[in-house]
Write a structure and sequence with these properties.
Blueprint: E1 4-7, E2 10-12, E3 34-36, H1 38-54, E4 58-63, H2 68-78, E5 82-86, H3 96-107, E6 115-119, H4 130-138, E7 142-152, E8 155-162, E9 165-172, E10 175-179, H5 191-198, E11 203-205, H6 247-257
Parallel strand pairs: 1-4, 1-6, 4-5, 5-11, 6-10, 7-10
Antiparallel strand pairs: 2-3, 7-8, 8-9
Amino acid sequence: MTNVVVLIKHVPDYTSDWKLSDSDYTLDRAAVDGIIDEINERAVEEALQITEKNGGEVTILSAGPAPATDAIRKALSMGADKAIHIQDDAIHGSDAIQTAYLLATALGTIEGVELVIAGNEASDGRVGAVPAMIAEYLELPHLTSLRSLEVDGDTLKGEREGDEGIYSLEASLPAIVSVNEKINEPRFPSFKGIMAAKKKTPEVLTIADLGIEDGVVGVANSASKVTAVTPKPPRAAGEKIVDEGDGGVKVAEYLAGQKII
């Protein structure tokens, strides 16, 4: 049996216009609709495939405000067994290091975890280092940005695609991995799965429940801060070229003037 924890994140809809708050320049999540990060759906799918083959259960772990429940419900409707939601205003504005510490602390409270699966990077932050940071906190082996993953007994095998070729990687369980968009195609939740998810109540934890002291996480103690924001300038009108038999020449001259050619 392989007990798997999947890390998921509730992120702003990719199609929305994102805004920063006026007070601390953090992402204003209340101003846009949120969804489960697409790469997290692939992480959930991989966990489900592993447990369907080897037995075990899938636990969802997410940190975020109350609306993050929507992302958790999506993962549960795909077939995950249970979920833990770290919900506390104190984690607002946490940077990658603080987030990794928070998730690592929560993982340390879950019994019997053999494998942790995450996406390779969140679409709203693009840091791409949180899974490795968690592994360092927990002193576990980690395989990152995998395009394939296989569990064979106590051994974990995977492939990572790089600029110079494909790397075959191996580690012993327990371990932490992150996956990229080539790992699989996530399943659509079935009607049965959607109805079953409604009966599953995520366990809600605060930083106090995890034994984390006030001020350790959150924007006030973040190692990085945004001090000012300049609005993006409006898009300038393009140059219109009328083809009077010399349109090609005019386009070439324009591109040369822009140093494109």
